[in-house]
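Protein modeling request. Please complete all fields; requests missing the sequence field cannot be processed.
Requester role: graduate student
Desired output: 3D structure, token encoding
Chains: 1
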Amino acid sequence: MKKVLLTLLLPLLVTAAAAGPLDQLRRGLPLPAAPEPAQSSAAVSHLAGDDRYWVTVSADDKYDRTALLRAGLDIVEIEKGFVSGFIPRGALEQLAAKGFMVRSRLPIADYAAGHLRDFPAADAVYHNYSETEAELRALAAANPGEASLFSLGKTTEGREIWCLRLNNAEKGEAPSARPAVFFMGNHHGREHLTNEVALALARHLLANKADPAISKYLGTLDIYIAPLTNPDGAEYDIRTGKYRWHRKNTRINADRSVGVDLNRNYDSLWCTAGASQYPPADTYCGPYAFSEPETRAIRDFVLARPNLKTLMSYHSYSSLLLYPWAGRDEDVSDARDRKVFETMARAMGALTAYRPQRASDLYVAAGDTGDWAYSARGIFAFTAELDGSTFYPGAAMIERASAKNIKAALYLLGVSDDPYKLAR
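Delivered output (424 residues):
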């Protein structure tokens, strides 16, 4: 993950005397009260009431990172000896009591002032919810022999979670005996690039349907693409015309904070590690597993399709190709399954230049989509963390990230007829 800009860190770094290994820093030293958020400029006035901070915290290893997630830190960037990310003010003020040294802090409005891009103007090429729906409808209408469109279910705010199905025999929600592949984007609202990569994949497959290899996939596989699985969160992130760095859905919690982290809400060791029970935290796991209509819709879709063999969930950012376990600090125990995961991850990593690794080697994070899909249905499920050094990398990143991930998707399609052939 990318380095934190020194220009943000230097004014706020702790003194050199406080530096050193985390086990020396954890002395329970009192943490100074967090400063009041600075007056926002007009460009970030929509964040004036947001009490989150961008912080850099000492963390030696994945165990420290896991503990920080549970404490309410949304880890965005990882470097040797420290991590950076977003944390609510209330959780920030508790970090010292939990033994962590905060190296720097910056109110989100100040952080945003140096990072914002205007979605409607500079990033107008990105698809919002209505534009995503329109494109999916257009693809289905232009390719009736190969494509159909249906909804996985409704969101917290009543939006449809649209899914494009590519199959030249069965349409809509009709069952199929063909091996199935599921591509998902935008679990997290602010990760708009993932929607674009999923849409680009759909366009590529249909534009090249006469290509012998792709024609074979359309004739032998059951392919599902749901580019926008958290449409409420994505729309909330851009509702003001300025980015909000919003990760979660838009459930209104009991304390009036907004959202549940959908990728911590699946019933796989739910909320046991790497997730927060503090509702304002970006990694809040929800009141119980599958509490959210979005995750229930995906659960019901997966459980209703025993033909699903592989799954790819697109996230951003950090250029990684991850596989189970995420919620356990251990390898997949089945040796044959582990070989398939590792072989597929290496191959897709080579095609994308992403680093393939077990997800929990970053930190342990329970309630993850891929862990649940594998544990519940034996699906070979992966997470691709896309390119970039920010959640808002601009329009130019779309083509670059899409091209390499289409190559990886074609590989995934090519082995989904029988993933176990990779273990023979």
